[in-house]
């Protein structure tokens, strides 16, 4: 068992080991996995294995190549990330990749090119990569990391073998955080974080739990004061960025479920009181409409930087009052 990997990664890893052992690795792998699964750890381990000079199905940890990987100086290993966090991966970065792909390895072994997050490639960057993927250079392994395969051009997707993280159960997450972090986590924190173990960990360790409680409480007060307290909700949402909007979207979805008489499978399974109260207070058609417009607003904010968030969020809150 590869101890550097997370317990939920063993299945995929064993299948990759099979591909390595039988020399059937595709030249490009697309890891369609959320970063909350620890996908970079899996890909780093895969890369360590391919670069290791012993050419086994685990990195030996002792050879010159393993040493260079450890010190972050391996000349055949290239992680391509946006030069500024949250921004795009440029066509120049991909052109540089294409040159590396054609070079020969410094150690007569594989060259690794890892692109994360691949959905951040601009269209021209993606097209530049496509040319290389169509005529793959020998001994060059591409790995693309993306949250979902649908975020990539279909032509790129079809050139890669797509791998997904098998579902991770709440039991596995509870056991892992109990063992490694001595954390006792709630079922709600797991559903709220999409069953992503690293997101659940961050929820507890980065004070997000308190921020979540505060946002719910602000929203509850705002609705119950006929929207006199919108600024607290807006400020809190701006601070939390997309995560806060995601929590609010789950909340509205839970309220809709309650209004439809569905009392199981709520994301906010520990917030029965607030959901009951809001389900009575806000008309069902308003909740439905606001839920849809919130999700549209999230997409808009994620796609375009530089929008006036404060204005858009305030407008959205006032739409609860209706025309
Ligand atoms: Zn080695």
UniProtKB/TrEMBL annotation:
- Spell out the GO cellular component terms annotated for this protein, sorted alphabetically and separated by semicolons: DNA polymerase III complex
Q: Per its UniProt entry, what is the enzyme's top EC class, as one word? A: transferase
Which InterPro entries does the record cross-reference, listed alphabetically? DNA_pol3_clamp-load_cplx_C, DNA_pol_HolB, DNA_pol_III_delta_C, DNA_Rep/Repair_Clamp_Loader, P-loop_NTPase
Q: Which UniProt keywords apply?
A: DNA replication, DNA-directed DNA polymerase, Nucleotidyltransferase, Transferase
Q: Please list the GO biological process terms of this entry.
A: DNA-templated DNA replication
Q: What is its EC number?
A: 2.7.7.7
Identify one Pfam family in the record.
DNApol3-delta_C
Q: Report the catalytic activity.
A: DNA(n) + a 2'-deoxyribonucleoside 5'-triphosphate = DNA(n+1) + diphosphate
> Transmembrane region positions?
none
> Which intervals hold domain DNA polymerase III delta subunit C-terminal?
232-320
Q: Which domain of life is it from?
A: Bacteria
- Matches recorded under Gene3D superfamilies: 1.20.272.10, P-loop containing nucleotide triphosphate hydrolases (3.40.50.300)
Family matches, as SUPFAM superfamilies: P-loop containing nucleoside triphosphate hydrolases, post-AAA+ oligomerization domain-like
Q: Please provide, alphabetically and separated by semicolons, the GO molecular function terms listed in this UniProt record.
A: 3'-5' exonuclease activity; DNA binding; DNA-directed DNA polymerase activity
PANTHER family, alphabetized: DNA POLYMERASE III SUBUNIT DELTA (PTHR11669:SF8), REPLICATION FACTOR C / DNA POLYMERASE III GAMMA-TAU SUBUNIT (PTHR11669)
Specify the protein name: DNA polymerase III subunit delta'
The protein's organism comes out as: Aliivibrio sifiae
